[in-house]
Design a protein that fits this description.
It is built from 7 helices and no strands. By secondary structure, the protein is mainly alpha-helical. Bound molecules: zinc ion.
Length: about 170
């Protein structure tokens, strides 16, 4: 994974594409939660499940289908100021981006993006992000390198996108 905080940047940036009228913040809250939920599968190490197993880390919980499923469940509920399509898209992008960002990291195993159809683990062809150490090793010398690469490859695009989305939102209001 990129570090867990970094995954939450996706719903945070996405939320900048807001319409002028007030709308429920719960979709953002769910997006934040679901952007990090896939990494609960780190517990599989403690349970003795192999990394490469479909039930292991970066396995089924990181798949696009699971993200689509969670998005579908939340789209069944009504959120003030949101259409169902908007809820679905917001949640899907928030959660699916987790596995896609993981596939950009330079270590660990690939991501089971196409589970359950394929159990293969996928990496992006371009993997600039230094992989975050798992669990207790987080506060290691490598942490600095990891944070630096995340700032560059995720943080910087996030800032640029936020500015762009805010500007375009402003443009529509005038
Ligand atoms: Zn992950």
């Amino acid at each position: 994974m990129p570090t867990i905080f970094t995954h939450t940047l996706v719903p945070i940036v996405l939320n900048q594409a807001r319409k002028p009228e007030p709308r429920s913040r719960w979709v953002l809250v769910w997006g934040l939660f679901l952007s990090i939920l896939p990494d609960l599968d780190s517990l599989s190490f403690a349970m003795g499940i192999a990394y490469g197993s479909q039930w292991g880390h970066r396995g089924f919980s990181h798949s696009l289908l699971v993200a689509a499923g969670f998005a579908g469940i939340l789209a069944c509920f009504r959120f003030h100021g949101w259409s169902r399509v908007q809820v679905w898209a917001f949640i899907f992008i928030s959660m699916a981006s987790h596995g896609l960002l993981d596939s950009l990291t330079d270590g660990g195993k690939g991501v089971a993006l196409l589970w359950p159809w394929r159990h293969a683990r996928y990496f992006a062809p371009f993997r600039p992000i230094a992989v975050s150490p798992i669990g207790a090793h987080f506060f290691s010398a490598r942490a600095f390198e990891v944070l630096l690469s995340e700032l560059l490859w995720i943080g910087l695009p996030a800032v640029v996108l936020t500015i762009a989305l805010r500007q375009s939102g402003r443009g529509k209001n005038h």
